[in-house]
Design brief:
Length: 206
């Protein structure tokens, strides 16, 4: 995926997610997501807050919360959920191209992974753009920032079945590109989609 396609893809994936969530019941909104401690509603509120951020409002927010990202995130989630219309708040930011400081690949990954954090527990299928998942995986494999992906996948070979993409050496982990990306991000739910001797290694890691 070319860099110029990142924000259009983010916007398209947000719109697709909003459409998928239109008919959720109250009970479904309270479903635990793949993010520990966060419900489906909480993850969507977090995605909304991230889209609202700019480098100019992110830093003061961090300062006001003692430079605790977790504290800032929890306050943002509570603020957005308190409106009583978390989906409506999300719809307000569908086409925004703002973000906290950081590489733009980070925000592409944020949308793909958090959309999965929401959809998978709800049993909602979605065809994620494979080229976008490849771009994010190529970014994550190099670093331990945020996702700790580089450490998590050390010593295994990842092989995509739906893209011309491999990474690493060691026991193989084979499966769809999006599932490999989720596994790199610590989502063990996605390991059920993967095969190979390296799956047990990923299962054993945080």
């Amino acid at each position: 995926m070319d860099k110029s396609q990142i924000w259009p893809t983010i916007h398209a994936e947000r719109r697709a997610l909003a459409a998928d969530l239109e008919t959720l019941t109250a009970g479904q909104w309270d479903t635990p997501s793949l993010c520990a401690g966060w419900t489906v509603r909480d993850v969507l509120a977090h995605m909304t807050a991230t889209a609202e951020k700019t480098p100019f409002n992110f830093l003061p927010g961090m300062l006001a919360n003692g430079f605790s990202l977790t504290k800032l995130q929890n306050k943002d989630i509570a603020r957005i959920n308190a409106t009583g219309d978390t989906l409506g708040q999300f719809k307000n930011v569908l086409d925004r191209s703002t973000s906290p400081p950081g590489p733009v690949d980070t925000w592409l990954g944020e949308v793909l992974i958090h959309a999965s954090d929401i959809r998978r527990p709800l049993g909602i299928a979605h065809d994620y753009p494979v080229d976008a998942a490849v771009r994010v995986a190529d970014s994550y494999k190099k670093t331990n920032l945020v996702m700790d992906a580089k450490n998590r996948i050390a010593g295994v070979k990842l092989v995509a079945t739906d893209a011309d993409w491999t990474h690493g050496d060691g026991p193989e982990v084979t499966g769809p590109m999006m599932s490999l990306l989720l596994a790199m991000s610590g989502r063990k739910d996605a390991l059920a989609d993967l095969t190979g001797d390296g799956v047990a290694t990923l299962q054993s890691r945080d």
